[in-house]
Structures
1.
Amino acid sequence: MQKLIFKTKEQLGKAAAKAVAEKIKNAIETKGSSNIILATGISQFEILAELVKAEGIDWSTVTMFHLDEYIGLSPDHPASFRKYLKERFVDKVGTLKAAHLVKGDADDPQAECDRLNQIIADHPIDLALVGIGENGHLAFNDPPADFDTDHRYIIVNLDDKCRNQQLGEGWFEKLNDVPTRAISMSIRQIMKSSFLIASVPDQRKARAVKDALEGPVTNACPASILQNHPNCKIFLDHDSASLLSPDSGRGADQ
């Protein structure tokens, strides 16, 4: 695992987007196509804004999945991750080979998981973008996360800290509006990605970053599993890296 620390979140976003673009182009050059997973939320604003401007990517060869979606939320709700990705990515890059969005408002959430499980099983993932939640979650796998399930998409319960983070970021007007369940990509499916790029800016993530990168690997801090991935880069800013130990192998300051 490589840690890279930048002065600002804008610098973080540009560097992470450059790394993502290189991985996508390498996959296309090698096998003619690329399968990617995108994350959402405030932590991904800068990276997606830069990625859609990347040159030399034939997006018509790229298949996109995403990490999670709230159960019961319509795709036109301001907090919908489908809306987020459509506006910030899908509509900006033109024609993708495919965009497999999680239908959180499906009548049968388990059937939606089954549908996605069948699709992604046929698409080995070249690259996944992830973030780290304030409670250490990875996707919507809140602690204590299920590290053992082989199911690729699962139904999860959202804990109060996770729901308060969504409220604090301004996606909802009040806590009761934040759904209590979601469809999430599982930990094992995320870890199957050939490369992982985690973008984690902001002071409010500093404790979770320290626990994830310096603490033990435990489902009490789901993002700590990133320590076990052989090809993972963590992009931090000075605020999110502020609690890391000086001798922790902080990586290059930019």
2.
Amino acid sequence: MKTVLEAKNLNKYFHDPVEFHVLKNINMTVQSGEFVAIVGPSGSGKSTLLYVLSSLDREYEGEVIFGDVELKTLTNQNLANLRNKSIGFIFQFHYLLADFTALDNVMLPGLKLGEIPQNELEEKAYQKLELLGIADQAVKKVNRLSGGQQQRVSIARALINEPSIIFCDEPTGNLDSKNALMVFDILKNLTREVDQTILMVTHDDSFSSETDRQIQLLDGKILYQ
């Protein structure tokens, strides 16, 4: 299997109001097509680890290697290009543009990337919405969609540029149990059907137990993986 992401001797400190060692000598890999959950109690460093691995946080010691590139070697512009082209994000809150349609929201990362004509991108966005069972909602403004539908739009948006990996931070945390299960099943099916690599922070044991592998954190250290 191909290694998509690797952390070597990763350490992270917070310095305000006092110094706190939040991630301690993290070594881990994620392989292509894996669905991996980062689990652990509140305050164990799960989301901090996800932000560092996903390039959203660049203040760390050690190495984060994406494919064959160490992220610290990239300029801000090159990192932004890499993030837009090769990394997808799904958060607890969907961060959609409320006055835009579902289709427009899904297209935005592709428009920013600018690699295919707009008519082709629109067709691709429709395909992603269809994959997620909400193509019939494409021309509705997202503020008229349910919470579960909005999260499916955010998943389609994360998929639009065919990313190497999708990072998920508590993607079901803001949903009721029915919609949470639906969103989790969608993520699991993406790894099975289109070989999508996913790294997900979750506090829900019933979901994490259904992933390919769990990385257990406690006090900033990996207990097992």
